[in-house]
Specification:
With 289 residues, the protein is an alpha+beta fold. The protein contains five helices and 15 strands. Strands 3-6-1-14-15 form a five-stranded antiparallel sheet. It has a four-stranded antiparallel sheet with strand order 4-5-2-13, with no helix packed on it. The chain is globular, with a radius of gyration of 19 Å.
Length: 289
């Protein structure tokens, strides 16, 4: 199945400012990219660099924004499976001693996922549930049931502890809390974000945005879990993976920039958004929600 995906950023800068951006499919998703285009509008930006691949396999772009307003637009058609996220209710947890070296880091506390500080809660709440798929799903059910989704409810520095205390957040906050709980249960869990089309689900009636979810290592491979939506979905396109949102910021600027607008789209390919993204793009708040 072909998806048309993309995004448009409008930036305003007072002085020349360098930035690193993530908006293209992850390096592991490139085989599915049919074609793509990246363009800048306005005289305030130097051409983006060729992408480089960071330590998590993310495709990163460097761009220098000169003083003034710049629009950066990315469009792509990608081929994805028509099946929903894989399910394996019999998947078991690997012991720490059996984990690959590269997976161990996803058991550790990180900036937004203070797993060492929620261990007592995690074990008292989920310790009696059989380890493996069922325990991870119970964590997602618990986070989904006790957290209210609300745009603008969390500042950029909001962490798992903040979500736990307030009970509100956007999807990155749901994900951080679920990751922290899973890691404290010795379940390797990593943060992911990307494009998520509304396929076979009701139209939420809200602006489209990038979406965050998590990936859990069971039986020697990674599975997708989504504590915000808490259902298996079709058509995810991963942009970034890391320990938490600090590793996969959409924009990391080395100086002050203002994001005036962000539009994100992801829909079954019709050609409309490829030829004219204003037809299908829905402006969102840029909160990874």
């Amino acid at each position: 199945m072909d998806l048309d995906i993309g995004c448009s950023f409008v930036f305003d800068t007072a002085v020349p400012t360098h930035a690193v951006m993530l908006f293209e499919p992850h390096s592991t998703e490139l085989d599915g990219v049919v074609h793509s285009r990246l363009e800048t509008v306005g005289d305030a930006a130097l051409p983006p660099s060729e992408p480089y691949v960071d330590s998590f396999g993310n495709l990163c772009r460097r761009i220098t924004l000169n003083a003034g307003q710049t629009t950066l637009r990315f469009l792509a058609r990608v081929n994805v499976s028509q099946e929903a996220d894989e399910t394996d209710e019999g998947a078991q947890l690997d012991t720490p001693m059996d984990l690959p070296d590269a997976v161990l880091q996803f058991l550790m506390p990180s900036r937004y996922c203070e797993s060492d500080q929620v261990a007592d809660l995690a074990w008292s709440t989920f310790g009696a549930i059989e380890s493996g798929w069922g325990r991870v799903q119970s964590v997602c059910d618990w986070v989904h049931g006790r957290t209210e989704f609300r745009y603008g409810s969390s500042p950029p520095g909001f962490s798992a502890l903040g979500v736990l205390d307030s009970g509100v957040g956007v999807c990155r906050d749901f994900t951080h809390l679920a990751i922290a709980l899973c890691r404290s249960l010795n379940i390797p869990t990593r943060y992911a974000f990307g494009y998520l089309p509304d396929i076979d689900v009701p139209d939420p009636g809200t602006p489209m945005d990038f979406c965050a979810w998590m990936e859990v290592f069971l039986d020697g491979r990674w599975f997708t879990f989504d504590p915000r939506n808490n259902e298996r979905r079709i058509g995810r396109v991963v942009i970034g993976r890391g320990r938490d949102a600090a590793d996969v910021a959409m924009v990391t600027s080395f100086g002050k920039i203002q994001m005036v607008a962000l539009t994100v789209w992801a829909e079954v390919g019709s050609g409309a958004s490829w030829n004219d993204p204003t037809i299908s793009g829905r402006e969102g708040p840029g909160l990874i929600g």
